[in-house]
Amino acid sequence: MAGSADSPICPVILAGGAGTRLWPLSRSLYPKQFLPLLGDRPMLGETLGRLAGLAHGPALVVCNEEHRFLAAEQLRKAGASDARILLEPEGRNTAPAIAVAALEASAEGDDPILLVLPADHAIVDAAAFRQAAEEAAALAAEGSLVTFGVVPMSPATGYGYIRAAAGDGPRAVDAFVEKPDAATAERYLSDGGYFWNSGMFVFRASTYLEALESHAPQILAAARAAHEGRRADLDFVRLDAEAFRRSPSDSIDYAVMEKTDRARVVPLDAGWSDIGSWRAVWEYGRDAGNADAAGNVVAGDAVLEDVRNSLVHAQHRLVGAVGMEDCVIVETADAVLVAPLSRAEDVKKLVERLKADGRNEPLVHRRVYRPWGSYEGLDLGERFQVKRIVVSPGGQLSLQMHHHRAEHWVVVHGTARVTCGEKVFLLSENESTYIPLGTTHRLENPGAIPLELIEVQSGAYLGEDDIVRFEDQYGR
Fold this sequence. Notes:
Layout: E1 10-14, H1 43-49, E2 60-64, H2 68-77, E3 84-88, H3 94-105, E4 113-118, E5 122-123, H4 126-141, E6 145-150, E7 161-164, E8 171-177, H5 182-191, E9 194-204, H6 205-215, H7 217-228, E10 231-233, E11 236-238, H8 241-245, H9 252-257, E12 263-268, E13 272-273, H10 278-287, E14 297-299, E15 302-305, E16 311-314, E17 319-322, E18 327-331, E19 336-340, H11 347-356, E20 367-370, E21 373-381, E22 384-391, E23 399-401, E24 405-413, E25 416-420, E26 423-427, E27 432-435, E28 441-444, E29 451-459, E30 468-471
Parallel strand pairs: 1-2, 1-4, 2-3, 3-11, 6-12, 14-16, 15-17, 16-18
Antiparallel strand pairs: 4-9, 5-13, 6-9, 7-8, 7-9, 8-12, 10-11, 18-19, 20-21, 21-22, 22-29, 23-30, 24-27, 24-29, 25-26, 25-28
Helix pairs in contact: 3-6, 3-7, 6-7
């Protein structure tokens, strides 16, 4: 029977957010939930991976419209192509996002148990997490709104806390409390009965919607209108943008959990972290056994001399460090961050300054991802630009035209099918072609391996907005 206690869980993955505290790796158009911060898989893939062994149906993923192709490709690589992707036209916090997910999950008349997980959390012990999720699902089947309370390992001041009722195991929530100062956090740790607020939840779709009706009816009304006005767009579900924007922006904690008498907490001791800063990345790596003898967590090509308890992440070149302690160094193709780990939270302020100065570094990497593949700027000068373009097998750029630039294409790997005006032809490795200014053209990869080419643009204006699209299989 749909919605019974032993029915498969419906995972709801919240994949919105910008992750500004993890700049320069995390950027607005490629935020942390899509990055492999903790291993080989992106964090979205890690989140889906820890569901293995838990009885569940296809996932529902809620993400920003700008990230839809990233989400779809990563879901495909994670073996979750059956997941549905709900597109938020604008971030309105977790309460509205979960509301539209609950409406979508129950649209066919079912009343599933939702397992709500942010896509950017880390958990060391996946088995312990699954056991806690099963305990939570049993409570949810009886009508509870369940959250996971992380057993605190330290007097952390960066998390909100949950004060639980006396007892052991799953129990009622007495109160949700804000992020404490250091002295208060020490008291919470010594007193016991306090848990870190994980931001993960389990409940029936109907239970959550009923709670919204009671405690946040404006959010529910906007979510219903946005969902009723939804439309299919390729593999995505687009909400009615105007209706969704009418929703108050509020978290599930404030909108529901702090007001309901159905809140229950399941203790979770599984090596959890929300990976909210570079310090959290270092702590996770240390706790997962990835630190060297001096306490350093290193990714990429780095040589360290007399460096202790630091995080070094090198993406594109050798990073050398001497005589440092408790620091973070992150190197990317176009930016380098150096900071004390104790100031990791302040990276957000740096990003705000960069945005205020109108710089692109907070928005995009030098390599920009598209639904067909990616491109990377190699050189830029007066009236010319050089890019490296990679087109995935079966991928194709839109049929397009430029008013202000001409292009030269040189294939270095794979095979290209080129449309140039009325002509359609193939190019193999070491072959090239010229696309005159104002000529309708398209680039496709008909092969089974990635197509790589070098593009040299020349003209009076080289901006990405100089594109007139005539056809596009991705609906842009």
